[in-house]
Specification:
By secondary structure, the protein is an all-alpha fold. The protein has a two-stranded antiparallel sheet with strand order 1-2. Helix content is 65%, strand content 1%.
Length: 433
């Protein structure tokens, strides 16, 4: 994937779950009776009865295929929702960190402004003390100092009360006081914003945890129900559960490939659009060269405005958005993932000569991070599966386990490109695989 121009807004998790739960496929509710299939699922007696006629057999095959598709669809949808929720949490946490940086900057600037103001007041006090010791009049200085302390300097004509030197010092003190006050207000506002963002991040963390739990429950049910349904399907068709399982895996791999190609093409187009939009916005915000103003007539010393407060410039987004590990969740271990993948090449019929291609491919895609998330397409994990829920065919722990992601990714590469080098060559040519 190419570097991203900017983050994208991810839909709220509640809306995602509303879509998931109201999806067109509908699975039957579980039965409370131990040992019996859930309501709506076929029993083995149903299968035997269906074998009595070709029409009954065909109808039962269709019914079981629909149930298997529904189980897989729900698992994928909940998996995608979990990825979305984790990415939302990642972006919320990043916003909190940015707000914290702004608070830190403002706190430091406020402290410096307060120190500068204190120094000016001490210097004015020292002038008053020196004037008193030398027998001079200190009344004007004391009036100026009192005005500074009570923030009423604006009503005084300092030049008429004290000397030019002291007037300059008083004006500087006044400016420092204004800066200190302005920075203090900005700091309080920044702290309030940080608290608000922290609350949002906590809410999104809770949502991410709930989404992961919902996905885990559904994937576990899918695996449990799918095994029996596949065996029933094999019995009806006169094949074996292994053959039916391999057939469904092949169909799932083909669907994953086609979905990936379409989604990644769309993501590339969206990325290009947002990059162009960001570039145009940056160009529009670039200030024009200022035209020097004509020199103004001499006037009384003006009070400087508060110094502008620099806003931390966010770094450009990385190639992937890495969702922080939800407590009890994934561990990003690129070295461990690489070692595992290297050790699994032979199981897929490849030699170690293929590992360099694989290393380059998944470094480009995800930096071998378990929680790597593409904010444009929703691709997830080390292999950047798209839709992310396609990983579910390799194991229920795909959201957090790099081994499961690697197994799915190697199978995907074998089925679609023949080898890691074949996949890498495609990625070099098209920028996705």
């Amino acid at each position: 994937m190419s570097p991203f121009a900017q983050r994208v807004r991810i839909p709220a998790l509640t809306a995602v779950f509303a879509v998931v739960l109201a999806a067109s496929f509908s699975l039957p509710p579980a039965s409370a009776e131990d040992g019996a299939p859930p309501d709506g699922y076929p029993s083995w007696q149903d299968v035997q009865n269906a074998k009595q006629s070709e029409a009954g057999k065909a109808a039962e095959v269709t019914r079981i295929n629909d149930l298997l598709g529904g189980l897989q669809g729900q698992a994928e949808a909940l998996g995608n929702a979990a990825v979305t929720a984790a990415a939302e949490y990642a972006l919320a946490e990043a916003a909190v960190q940015a707000a914290s940086s702004r608070v830190d900057i403002l706190t430091a600037q406020t402290a410096r402004a307060a120190a500068e103001l204190g120094q000016y007041k001490r210097e004015i006090g020292a002038l008053a003390a020196q004037s008193y010791k030398t027998g001079g009049t200190n009344m004007g200085i004391l009036v100026a100092l009192d005005a500074i302390q009570t923030n009423s300097i604006q009503g005084l004509n300092i030049v008429q009360i004290v000397s030019d030197k002291t007037a300059d010092l008083v004006n500087k003190s006044t400016a420092a006081q204004r800066v200190s006050s302005a920075l203090g207000e900005q700091e309080q506002a920044a702290r309030a914003e940080r608290e608000r963002l922290s609350g949002e991040a906590k809410s999104k963390l809770d949502a991410a945890q709930a989404a992961q739990q919902a996905m885990s429950r559904q994937v576990s049910e899918q695996q449990e129900r799918s095994e029996e349904l596949t065996a029933q399907l094999a019995s009806l068709k006169g094949t074996s559960a292994a053959v039916e399982g391999e057939f469904r895996q092949g169909q799932a791999a083909l669907a994953a490939y086609e979905a990936a190609q379409a989604a990644k093409r769309a993501a590339a187009q969206e990325q290009a659009r947002q990059q162009a939009e960001a570039a145009a916005k940056a160009a529009a915000q670039k200030p024009a060269n200022p035209v020097p103003a004509a020199p103004a007539a001499p006037a009384a010393p003006a009070v400087p405005a508060p110094a502008p407060v620099p806003v931390p410039t966010p770094a450009p987004p990385p190639v992937v958005v890495v969702a922080p590990s939800v407590p009890g969740g994934a561990v990003n271990d690129p070295a461990g993932a690489k070692n595992y993948a290297s050790g699994r090449l032979s199981a897929y019929g490849w030699g170690q000569d293929q590992f360099q291609c694989l290393a380059q491919l998944w470094t480009k895609e995800s930096n071998w991070l378990t929680t790597a998330t593409n904010p444009y397409s929703g691709a997830y994990g080390i292999a950047q599966a798209l839709p992310a829920g396609k990983y579910a065919s390799a194991g229920s722990d795909w959201l957090t386990n790099y081994r499961t992601q690697v197994e799915w990714g190697l199978g995907y590469i074998r089925d679609r490109y023949g080898s890691p080098c074949g996949a890498w060559n495609h990625s070099v040519r098209y920028n996705w695989y």
